[in-house]
């Protein structure tokens, strides 16, 4: 055991010495614009991941989500939904390592180029630095350390680079789950596909994930009639879609307040209030010029719904409020289109969590008593994985912290957190790390010696 521990310690030191390579990797990833919407950079990002994973001995496969599953006419998404699976097949149990490759669009207020990595001491600043391209850099660093230091792995890593987590209509991981691509074949003959998944869309804190809300995005198009602005005040001429939507906006404000009173039993983060359902106007646009009565107003509604709520009920409630509000304005018409949906993630507990918790503690320096269990009103695409595979367990880690400006100008991670996450991943994958906590060693189908 002492020799094995010394091996991991040497590999941990190697990670620290080699971290600048991971920083360079992160810079290359940030430079590829994968913002969703529209999500047009997925093919370019897949090429970059192919170049970074092949030297580690991975075989790569591209899988596109069929257009008919995600493409909404005149909707926000465009371009091929290219997912990449990188596998190392030695016959060991599979450990999926999941990353969503999309970011939100850069919001106004950035003081640096969001698509170019910037450094401020320990800070690594750029769009997706924490959520979650920095996680990819950390995992690749861990895998390079294992190769360089001769660390035997307990698992065959399967890297999952997936599309449209940021509120897409059909996230890539959902499609891969429905196609049976997330787990290995060992045990499949007994009806139990082999493997489990670590989702890096999470926190660098001492957290045990309790699940999360679902969300959906609803595009609302309100149509009036365009005329010359000088004629817009004459009876029977023109219908201002923006002004005509004021009753709708007021109705949504009333509904927003009602929705916010609904509290979930999901445990909140330590020291935070109970998690509440949410309804927000996330985007709004309309009109063309001062000389024309606007004929179209488009708004995107974001509804975050609790595990205790039904998606169908939440959607119907909004659509009913829209219909009643628009009916008060003669001549105005409205249509709604669902453009994104993530199902709630139920309790993701399972047999691998104790060892993952120990690995995160080893990487970040957390003691067992530091860990707390909580959920989130933020959302994940792993609710679809649970539904598609019937496997509730999902491990969660990542680089998120409350001060990291995720989804906001100046998003960043730190060099030390990349090192810590790389060490945690290396420990978890290593065969000699806490073998007494490895549930796969007790399974007769799983023999590490097959490598």
Identify the notable features of this structure and list them briefly.
Aminopeptidase; 2 domains; single chain; six-stranded mixed sheet; disordered C terminus; 451 residues
Verbal overview:
The strands form 3 sheets. The protein has a 6-stranded mixed β-sheet, with helices on both faces. The longest helix is centred in the N-terminal third of the chain and has 21 residues, at 129-149. The protein is built from 12 helices and 14 strands. It has helices spanning 2-17, 19-30, 42-53, 67-70, 129-149, 172-178, 241-244, 246-259, 311-326, 353-364, 382-389, 415-429; strands spanning 59-64, 82-87, 94-100, 118-120, 123-125, 156-162, 196-199, 207-223, 278-286, 296-305, 333-342, 372-379, 395-396, 412-414. α8 (246-259) runs antiparallel to α9. It has 2 domains: 2-211 and 343-450, Zn peptidases (Aminopeptidase, 3-Layer(aba) Sandwich), CATH 3.40.630; 213-342, Alpha-Beta Plaits (2-Layer Sandwich), CATH 3.30.70. With 451 residues, it is α/β, with parallel strands linked by helices.
How does the SSE layout of this entry go?
Blueprint: H1 2-17, H2 19-30, H3 42-53, E1 59-64, H4 67-70, E2 82-87, E3 94-100, E4 118-120, E5 123-125, H5 129-149, E6 156-162, H6 172-178, E7 196-199, E8 207-223, H7 241-244, H8 246-259, E9 278-286, E10 296-305, H9 311-326, E11 333-342, H10 353-364, E12 372-379, H11 382-389, E13 395-396, E14 412-414, H12 415-429
Parallel strand pairs: 3-6, 3-7, 7-13, 8-12
Antiparallel strand pairs: 1-2, 2-6, 4-5, 5-14, 8-10, 8-11, 9-10
